[in-house]
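Record type: ASSEMBLY
Status: queued
Input:
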Amino acid sequence: MIVAEPKTLDEIKAMTDKFDRILMVGCGTCTTVSLTGGEREVNLMATALRLARKVEGKEIEIGEQTILRQCDFEYIDELKDADSYQAIVSFACGAGIQGLARKFVGKPVLPGVNTQFIGFNEEYGYFTEQCKACGDCILHLTGGICPVARCAKGLLNGPCGGTNNGKCEISKDKDCAWVLIYNQLERLGNLKQFKKIMAPKDFSKAGNIRTMDLRKAGD
Amino acid sequence: MKDKVSNIKPPCVVACPVHADIQTYVGYIGQGRFKEALDVVRRRCTLPGSLGRICNHPCESECRRNKIDEAVSIRSIKRFAADVGMGLPHPDPIPKTKGKKVAIIGGGPSGLTAAYDLAKEGFDVTIIEKNDACGGAIYTGVPKYRLPKDIVAWDVAAIASLGVEIKTNTEVGEDISFDNLTKDYDAVLIAIGLSVSRGLPIPGADAEGILLALPFLKMVNFDDNARVAKRVVVIGGGNVAIDVARSARRIGAEDVKIFCLESDEEMPASPWEIEEAKEEGVQMFPSWGPKEVVVKDGKVAGMIFMRCLSVFENGMFSPKFDECELTQVEADNIIFSIGQGADVSGFLNTELSVDERGRIAFNPTTMQTNMKGVFACGEVVTGPGAAVGAMKSGHRAATAIAKYLGTGKVSALHISEPEAIDQIPDSIVDMITKLPRTPVKMANPVERVTNFEEIEFGFDQKTAMFEARRCMSCGAGAQIIEEKCAACLTCVRVCPYGAPYVREARAANFTLENCQACGICAAECPALAIDINLNIDTDIMGRASRSLDEPFITVFTCQYSVPEVLNPDTVKTTPPAGVNQVSMLCNNRIDTLHILAAFEAGADGVLVAACPDEKCRHNKGIDWPKIRVARAKDTLDEIGLGAGRLELAKVAKGSADDLAGAIDTFKEKIKELGPNPASRQLTPSK
Amino acid sequence: MGFKEALANGEFVVTAEVGPPKGTDISGMVHHVKMLKDKVHALNVTDNQSAVMRVSTIAITKVLLDLGVEPIFQMTCRDRNRLGLQSDLLGAAIFGVKNVLALTGDHTMLGDHKEAKPVFDLESVQLLQVINQLNEGYDMAGNELQGKTDFFAGAIITPEANPLEPQFAKFEKKVEAGAKFFQTQAVYDLKKFHSFMGRAGKYDVPILAGILLLKSAGMAKYLNKFVAGISVPDELIQELANTDKPLEKGIEIAGRQIRELRQVCAGVHVMAIGAEDKVPAILEAAGL
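Status: finished
Output:
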C-alpha cells in the first residue's frame, strides 16, 4: 500500500491562501488505510482550515468529498460540482493528485499529503517502507528482505562498515537489512547466495516516466 | 455469533414479553433524560408505575451482566422513571381521528394496554370496569405493601388522559348489556381477566374459616379493619399464595404456613417473593397436597396433607400422591390460593362462545372471538400469568383491532419475534469491568409486617443513574457503513474486545456479542465508516443559554463517569449558564473532530471530562481521550486558537463537585483568553 | 620504494592519512604532508570523510604527487554514480595515482549536508570490480578504453564488526572482486585482532591494521559508545585515565601496539584525526 503523511495545516493554509472556496477530496484507498487521506482526515483538515481562516478574519468555504480512488478517471467523475470551486486539495498519493489535475485542467490542484512510500501496515498507525518499486525484484536472492528499500544505501553485497549490533548507521532504531538478510539466508541454508557478488543494479528499470502496457500481450 | 443487525435485540428486550425498549430507556436514565426515558417505557409498558414495582422482570434474568456480576436492576430503573413522571403532567389527549369506537370490557393490565395503543392510534376508546377503579388484578389483588393504590391510579390516569373514557362500577350483564355494546361500538374487546378464585372439593372445604384468595386479597386491600386468626394455612404455590400469606401476616396472623403441591424448585412463585415472605416469618411446606380439612364444631381446626410425589406428567397437571405419608397442621383459617377462573356471567345468553375451561373462546392468531368485531385478550384467554404477559396480549389485541377497523377484515397477526444477542463470550468476560449491582433498599421485615406501607424504596436520582450506567448497551455498539469501509483494519487493531473482523466480506464487521459500545473504533476509523448505534447525545452546537459576557464552554462528559448536574433535560437540575454538555456514552468515543466541531460551533473553550485512567471502563492500557486531546491541541495551535482553549480533566467518578470545580477553573482560564476569535459573530461587536 | 612494491617485498608498511580541507587554503594540510613525507609509504586522501563536504580527493592526490608523496586515493560511492566514479578514476590515473581504496562511504545523514541525495549507484565490492575492469581496458559497459589504468586497488575491513560474519563474508567478496590490500578500522584489542588475522591471513592479501591515536579516556569511551566496529578494551581506558598526560600515554600505547603488530600483519595505517602532527611521534614510539 502507498503510505502518505499529512501536510501541516500551515502548508495547506499557505497553498490555499488566495482562495475562498475550495474542494477537499479524500481518497478511499491507500491514503485512507494509511490514516492520512480518508474522509476523517479531510474533515479534520477542512474544519481546521475553516477555523484558521476565521481566526484570520477571512472565511473560506470548503467542500468535502471522498471517492474510492483518485487514480481512475471513472471514480474522479463521481466528484460533484468540482468545477464550481476555485481550487482542489487532493488527499491522495501523487498519482491521485495528478489524476485530479489532469481531469480539472485550468484549476489549481494542490497536494494535501506527502506521499511517502510503499509500505507495510505493521500495527495501528505504524507503517514501514518495504519496496522502492525498483522494477527488478531480487527478493528471491535476499531471503525475502529487500536491501534496495531497507538498507539505507541500497547495497547489494552485504553490510557496510556502519552496521552496528544489527542496527543501521543512520539510526539505532533501524535494523541493518544486511544482518537480517544474512541471518535469514543462514536459516535457509543458503549462505552461498550471500557470498555471490551481485552485479550493479540495472537502474534503467527504475527510470522515470515508466509505463506498463499489458495491451500488447495479445499481439 | 451474530453480526447482522436486523431483528436482533438485547436479551433483556427479547425476554420482555412486551419487548420494551429497555436499552434505550435505561440509557436515557443514565444520561439524566428521565422524561424521555419514561416516554420510551410507556410505549410498550403502559403501566410503568405499577410494573416498576411488581413486574416479574424476565429481562433481568437474561441480562448479559449476569455473566459478569449481576443483572442491571431494570425494574427499579423503570420504577424510578415512573416516580419522576409522577411529578410531571400527564400526557396530552390524542385527537380521535379515526372516527371509530372501541369498547373494552375490563380495565386490567391487558385492557388498559389495548386502550393505550388504540387511543394512541386515534380511536375513541371506552373502558367498562366493574370495580370502582381500573387496574384489575393489580388493583384488587396485589397487596398495597407491594403496590400502593395511588400508583395504580396514576398509571390509569395517564391512560385516561389520552382521551380514554373509563366507566367504573359498570358491570356487563348488570348495568349494561353485552348486546348493546356490540351494537354501539365498532369493536369490543373482552379483557375481563380471571376474577374468581377456585375452591377445592375436599372434605371440610365448606367449614367456617375457609377463605378464597381473591376475595381475601380484596378484603385486605379495601377493608382497613380486615383481620384473620392467629394460625393461617395458605394452600398454593404461586405469587398469589405468597401475597395472601404475607397479607395475612399483616392482619393478625402470627403463624402462617404455605403448603403447595410443587417441590421447592417447581414453585411458580418468584424466588424473591418467596424469600421476602420467609423474611416476614412465612413458613414453606412444598410437596404436600391437601387431603382434608380438620373441622371442629363446624369451624376449621387444621388440615391434613398427603405427600405429593409429582405435579405434572408429560407437561400436564396430573398430581400423584403418597396417601400413606400424611401430615396434620393446626389452623384457624385456611386460604385456598390454587387458581382462578373467569366470571363470564355477563355474556350468558349471548352469541359469545365460552370454552370448556370457562374462558372466552378465541383465535390467538386474530385475537377475535367467535363473534365478528369482538376480540379478547388477557388472562381470560391466556390463563393466569404475570401482568406483563397480560400487557403483551393487550398489545396484540390492539393491533388486531386497529387492523380490523382499518380494513373491515379480520386477519392473522404476523408479529415477528426478535432474536437475542448471545451471551458475552468467555474470551472477554475477564476484560469487562465488574460493577456491582446497586441493592434496592427494603423496609425491615420486623417492622414491615405491622402495616401495609410499601416495603420497597425506589432509587434516588443518583442511584438510578449509576445503576443505569451499568448497562452494557448490548448490541448497540459499532455498526459498519459498508460502502465507506476501506477494510483498513484500524478498528480491528484498536478494539479492546476483539469485536471487529475483516474477512471474505472485504469490509469490517462487528461481532455483536463482543462489542461494548466504547466507541474507540468510531473515533479512529479513517473512513468515518463506523456508527455507534446508540442514543449518545452529540449536540455539539449547544443547547445551553449563551451570555455575551460569559465564556461559552462545551464540556464533553462520559455517561459512565460524570453525573447529571449539567444536563438541561434532567428534571431537577439546570445547567450552569454558558455550559453546553455533550454527553458521550463513553469518552473513548470522543473524536478530534468532535472537539474541532465544538470550536467551529462557537465554543470559547472545550473541556473533556474523562474518568481517571484506572477507573475507565474501557481503557485497556491506552488512554484514548488523552491521545485525542493531545492531537486536537496540536491542531488548535496550528489553527491559531491555541492549545490552551482545550483541556482534559480527569474527574473522579461520579463527582459532581469535581466536575463543577474543573469547569469553574477552566472558565476562569478561558475568560482570560477571551472569546473564540473564530466566532466573532457571537461577540457584542456585531 | 612505492607502496605496492613495499608490500610485495614484505616490508612492514606504514600509511597515514590526510583530510582535504574545507576551503581552498591547503597550507595546513601541506604542512602535515611534509612532516609525514619520509615516514610513511603512502598517504590516504579521504573522500568527503564522514559525509562532510571538503576539497575533492582527486585534487589533493595531485597536490601530494606534486609534493613527492604517494597517495592512496580513497573513493566512496556516495557522491557519484557509475559515470562519475569511472571518469574520476581515469582522471586520477592521468595524474599518476596508483593506489585506490574502494569504499561505500558513510551515509549523507551522518554528515553536514543531510538533505543531500545519496547516490550509492555502486558499492565497494562493485567498485573494486569496476577498477579491475578499467585496468583491463574496458569501462563498466564493456566499451574499450583508449589507454587503460593500472590501479592497485584496496578495500577496508572492520575486524571488530558486530556481528562479524556478514562483514567477513563481504571481506571475501572484496578479495574475489579484486582487492589487493586491506586497511582496517582501528583495532585496539590485539588478541582479537590476532584471531581475526588467523582467518583473514589465509587469503594472501596484505592487511594493514588501523591505528587510531587515543587522546584521552573520554575519547576512548566515546569511540566505544558511538563508533561502529571500534572497541577499546577497559585496560587501555584505565591506562589513559590513570595519567595526567593522556596524549603522551596515547602515543605510547599506539607505538606499543604497532610494535606488537609487526609480528601479526603486513603493516599499519595510522590515523590521528585532528592530531596529524603527532604521527611522527607515534612512529618514533613504534621504533619505525
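Annotation: Chain C has one domain: 3-285.
Annotation: The first helix of chain C runs from residue 3 to 8.
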